[in-house]
Amino acid sequence: MEAPLKQHQSGAWALLLCAWLLALVSTIAVLFVGEVMGQLPCVLCWFQRAFMFPLVLVLGVACCLSDTGVWRYALPLAVMGWLIALYHNLLYFGLIPESIKPCGAGPSCSGADMTILSGVPLPLLSLGVFSLLIIFLVLIRRRFTV
């Protein structure tokens, strides 16, 4: 009886660890781009950071405590970050007009220096990371909560 419970807990912990590592690597990467490379983030990037940075702490604590209930407070952060990243990508790829951009002044993410991995734009990476975090958190909710 104890073996299935241990396997159940290790599966939950593995998902928590993956989510935390994803948030941690993303946070370190944007800090590297901003602080080491000197690339200033645009306004929408700042808002996305505001939802990513706390996820490192929240998911890290959840890993330490094996707290599968973390989805209750991490999922809203990830969804809000995803919505901002989606809007950012719609602007970036020209699918919505820039006239409805919330803030026109400041740095832009459209330069070639704001891409990595042979031209993948940072806004698209952000959308992908938030998407993966949401998937991990939904899996935790569906598989490991009572």
Automatic annotation (TrEMBL):
A GO MF term: protein-disulfide reductase activity
Protein name listed in UniProt? Disulfide bond formation protein B
Q: Does the keyword Transmembrane helix apply?
A: yes
User: Organism, per UniProt?
Assistant: Pseudomonas kielensis
Would you identify the family this protein belongs to, as annotated?
Belongs to the DsbB family. BdbC subfamily.
Known Pfam families for this protein?
Answer: DsbB
Q: Which domain of life is it from?
A: Bacteria
Query: Which is a GO BP term held by this UniProt record?
Result: protein folding
Q: Where in the cell is it found?
A: Membrane
Q: Which residues cross the membrane?
A: 12-34, 46-66, 73-96, 116-140
**Membrane topology recorded in Swiss-Prot or TrEMBL:** Multi-pass membrane protein
